[in-house]
């Protein structure tokens, strides 16, 4: 879909800017006018992680005049496999500050605005209002729906991307001219159904493939060139090396941009997306132990059956001593239930405590009433019991 330029051109380019952007200026479709539009543009990146890294770096290099970074997290060693805007010496620093430094190193003419805070219902509208365009690099469903709803309510376009293992997706959402995220995904997936990158992994370079699409679409929208991805979903398969474009329609029944919207203001997104399912929450109630309690049980010689419900690849990285591996899927489909012992207490754990709560619901429903799961999973075990083990 062809759209008019999103921003007006800046008054002029300096001599230094003409030199810096000369390879843009000689593209007829961009030219001086297009570069002036980029200079005048205000773009917000939600997240300075996997997608935010390449997005911020190329938006900066392209000469976007004002770049906002909203990010509350700090740089962890496990980020560096894909979050290339951060480096070894940034470990422990706020990602927003590390990203700002990299942006200014790439292009000192960019005005960087750091929002070193978590995006939430209290600040999202005020922050979004300051920008022409939003690039969504979030990795969880609650924030994705919040980004969508805030953008729809403010009438702003945004560029969405998602990554998982070898698969990526991207699109442009702008309710005034086409579909929104809710038109594509009216409901979040059931909690625990779709693993996050922290659980399932992501090929680092996939961030560049999808981030590059997002930046390309940003530049096209800002300067008004080409056909936007608005109304299309790009699906990338790195293993097959295929890009497929699927047409998207605006859903007249969409809860926020449809003909009779039921969502007219921001909602409780954690509740909407459910950190864990109601069943899992009920199962975990009164049946949750800490990693330290697990250690005490083991040391006291209490007979327990310790079951790791993660995937084999995760088991290979780190495990709690004394555990055996039974992936969650084998518990949920019932195939592993017959092998569970009746004569000892069952203790389940996963990486963070979400999947083990889901498995706990199935185990308790199968009659193992005294089964428990470990709050915070193996991550908590490493933090509180054995810091010599790796985390991932
Ligand atoms: Zn919609």
Automatic annotation (TrEMBL):
<feature type="domain" description="Rhodanese">
    <location>
        <begin position="300"/>
        <end position="390"/>
    </location>
</feature>
<dbReference type="InterPro" id="IPR000594">
    <property type="entry name" value="ThiF_NAD_FAD-bd"/>
</dbReference>
<dbReference type="GO" id="GO:0016779">
    <property type="term" value="F:nucleotidyltransferase activity"/>
</dbReference>
<dbReference type="InterPro" id="IPR045886">
    <property type="entry name" value="ThiF/MoeB/HesA"/>
</dbReference>
<dbReference type="InterPro" id="IPR036873">
    <property type="entry name" value="Rhodanese-like_dom_sf"/>
</dbReference>
<dbReference type="InterPro" id="IPR001763">
    <property type="entry name" value="Rhodanese-like_dom"/>
</dbReference>
<dbReference type="InterPro" id="IPR035985">
    <property type="entry name" value="Ubiquitin-activating_enz"/>
</dbReference>
<keyword id="KW-0808">Transferase</keyword>
<protein>
    <submittedName>
        <fullName>Adenylyltransferase/sulfurtransferase MoeZ</fullName>
    </submittedName>
</protein>
<dbReference type="Pfam" id="PF00899">
    <property type="entry name" value="ThiF"/>
</dbReference>
<keyword id="KW-0548">Nucleotidyltransferase</keyword>
<dbReference type="Pfam" id="PF00581">
    <property type="entry name" value="Rhodanese"/>
</dbReference>
